[in-house]
Specification:
Layout lengths: L3 E9 L5 E13 L3 E7 L2 H10 L5 E6 L5 E6 L10 E13 L9 E2 L1 E3 L5 E3 L2 E10 L1 H10 L3 E2 L5 H11 L15 H4 L4 E5 L9 E3 L3 E5 L4 E7 L4 E5 L8 E9 L7 E6 L6 E6 L4 E8 L5 E9 L8 E8 L4 E6 L2 E7 L13 E4 L1 E2 L4 E2 L1 E10 L5 H6 L10 E7 L34 E5 L5 E4 L5 E8 L1
Length: 462
């Protein structure tokens, strides 16, 4: 039977005058969890290194013949992994312990728990890698007795940021859509999967989600009999952008078959899958009163019928040039008029599958509609085709301004007492960003479209 004793490490300036407590067990060590090995003159110095390392929860200490100690810092504890606590003569196992009647501002306490949960103070954290919209993520957290993470102190933010390091390898690849993280990152302005999971897509006149036989997955189905859908309006026409979607037209094909747009006086833009056998993209520049000034109208390619195809429209504002792509291949290009600078109108929604001025609707399926704030190449567009590999730059936390624009609250309604915004954030870009992600790159916060699918952080109260 090994000896268990208690060690108190008293306040030090380096720790912000907070106390930390360790429980020491003689003759045992935790294996397979060492993240760092340090050497020092006494265990107390190792203890403060563990306390200051967000994902250190315990340490193995062994005294050397010269009187110094070597300390192995562990990213787990016997609480989470009892089976890896092994006999080790000459070793001591030190684990952080809770101090009674001591607030989080006064004392440091954290622990690794079973099933990848972690405790920091009185709060339990867990990172979920499944990708969900903000609303779906919150519903999931609530279903397991918690909520999306609220962050009230710097140490909580640092800890959450360290958890995000677990997902970095999943996005750091150099092939496929994973490389889009470095190309577009946060520049996904709007993304609708059109599979029944989008919370901000409205269906009208029989539009529905239907399983499409060639994919064995649901997509938005429009029957050509006045069925259509809408998304919230997103401001993107005044910048460089890429508009991309997957389409399957059904016979008899309707002309025009609109993918996405708003086309009713004053006309704004329309992206058309089929207009006289061609892809088409048109957008107009109007004055503040809605008067027509000039436009871009580009057509090209021969879209297939009864087969899925990828259609993309690109506007490069810097080069004053528009492009059409069909299955990643450029099929049309057009220079813009001199000084072309489209005006954004304050519409509240855009149409899927509808040319509004004549009530023309398409017949067929649509899925994976995306708007990107970049003029992408054909190769980059094709990389975006995989539903399961949406580029992302962060993970959801609970902060949002869904009730009142600019008034941020945590899910329980509490006010913000600690902030970690990225420079120039929040900016409500495109008037479409009401939820907050923690950035994987640096742990700062950034407002984003609530419809993006991201990993997410849940919390429970201990």
């Amino acid at each position: 039977m090994h000896l268990i004793t208690t060690l108190f490490y008293l306040p030090l300036v380096a720790a912000g005058c907070r106390t930390v407590k360790f429980i020491k067990e003689e003759g045992v060590a935790l294996q397979n969890h060492v993240i760092k090995t340090v050497s020092d003159s006494k265990p107390i110095s190792c203890g403060w290194q563990c306390a200051d390392t967000p994902l250190c929860f315990s340490m193995n200490v062994r005294r050397l013949p010269n009187g110094r100690v070597t300390c192995e810092l562990n990213n787990s504890s016997k609480t989470a992994d009892q089976q890896n606590l092994i006999l080790s003569p000459g070793s001591q196992y030190h684990q952080l312990a809770e101090i009674e009647r001591c607030t989080a501002d006064q004392c440091i306490y954290k622990d690794a728990l079973p099933d990848d949960w972690y405790r920091v103070g009185s709060k339990l954290f867990k990172l979920f890698h499944d990708r969900k919209t903000w609303g779906q993520a919150r519903q999931f957290c609530q279903s397991i007795g918690g909520d999306l993470l609220s962050i009230n102190r710097e140490d909580e933010n640092k800890f959450a940021f360290q958890l995000l390091n677990q997902i970095k390898p999943n996005i750091a690849g150099t092939s496929g859509v994973n490389s889009l993280f470095f190309i577009i990152g946060k520049d996904v302005i709007g993304h609708w999967f059109l599979d029944g999971t989008d919370v901000d897509v409205s269906l009208f006149n029989g539009a529905r989600y239907k399983e499409e036989s060639s994919r064995s997955a649901k997509a938005l189905y429009l029957d050509g009999q006045f069925a259509y859908a809408t998304t919230p309006a997103v401001n993107f026409l005044s910048i460089s952008f890429t508009l991309v979607s997957w389409v399957k037209l059904e016979d008899p094909v309707r002309s025009p078959s609109t993918i996405y747009g708003y086309w009713k006086n004053p006309n704004l833009f329309r992206f058309t899958a089929f207009l006289g056998d061609k892809l088409q993209f048109e957008f107009q520049n109007r004055d503040a009163q809605g008067g027509f000034q000039d436009k871009i109208d580009i057509r090209g390619g021969n879209p297939n019928k009864e087969i899925w195809f990828n259609a993309a429209a690109v506007w490069d504002k810097t080069m004053n040039k528009a492009y059409l792509y069909l299955n990643g291949r450029e099929v049309g290009t057009s220079d813009g008029p001199s000084g072309f600078d489209p005006t954004e109108f304050k519409y509240t929604f855009y149409d899927i599958g509808l040319k509004r001025d004549g009530n023309h609707t398409m017949k067929g399926y649509l899925r994976n509609l995306m708007i990107v704030r970049s003029a992408l190449t054909g190769e980059e567009i094709l990389r975006m085709k995989d539903l399961n590999n949406e580029a992302f730059a962060g993970a959801w936390i609970g902060l949002n301004d869904l009730r009142t624009e600019g008034d941020y609250h945590w899910p329980d309604g509490s006010q913000v007492t600690y902030e970690k915004w990225h420079p120039n954030e929040p900016n409500n870009a495109y008037e479409y960003q009401n939820c907050v992600q923690m950035r994987i790159s640096d742990g700062t916060w950034d407002d984003a479209s609530c419809g993006k699918r991201l990993p997410f952080l849940c919390e429970k109260k201990h």
